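Page 37, top half.
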Amino acid sequence: MSADKYTKVILFYLILAFFAVPHLIDDFLFGIPAEFGLSVHLTQVLSGIFIVIYLVILLPLARGKKAGLYSAMGMGGFLALAGILKHIPLILQPGPYWSGWFSELLIFGLIFSGLAVVLTCLLVLRKVRDGELQSVGP
């Protein structure tokens, strides 16, 4: 196993967290959970669950397992897609978006780092499939 290839995935995954967690707070500040009919308490519990899941994905990823790659790819793809579908249409509307440039930075950072995680995972999985790189296990 080449630690360098997995290190790139882990780096992009951590960059994704850098944008995802502050964006989660931004969602709270601008009432997104209420749009889905969620109470503050339920949203706080779901946020905690999200952070635990995010961290649990890091464990097999750091151990060089394919399950970590698939899980990180799923999380990156989900967050990028959610950013594109929920926030890009709002950003394109006239007027300021939420808190302005910082909220937009979080959205674009979330989308691009999520896509970077997906792409990097796909490249590593391809190398594993072609025998150029070994995975520790499933």
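Page 37, bottom half:
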Amino acid sequence: MEKIRQAREFYKAGSFFEALEHLKEIISAVSTPNEEVLSEMIQSEAYELLGIIHQKLNNYHEALKNFEVALVKKSKLSSTNRQQILKIELSIIEIKIELAQYGATRQKLEELLQNLESVELEDSEIVNARILDLLPT
């Protein structure tokens, strides 16, 4: 968790490329047989932060790939709450809109709005507004 914390600090300081390198080291350690295997929780956090950083850098394809991996990993964790899943799903939808991959985006946004009613989000009004802004008219 220390390495994730350090990567978050780089991100907060605006040092996106340093954060990316740090996160890549964390994830590559998983595939190294001699290294201690990282928990799913740490991996999911690393992929989510990679998605956030790539989205900030307008690297939408990379952001989408990382958010999708984070979503799969977080969905497997019993400690993950619905709020965490909804935030990742919203990020994925935002990126798909940026990439003009509309497909089922409107339906997914409407599902997210319905799910928000049953989940207490820290910033539910802000998230609700983001979803409404993303809905195609």
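Margin note: The chain has seven helices and no strands.
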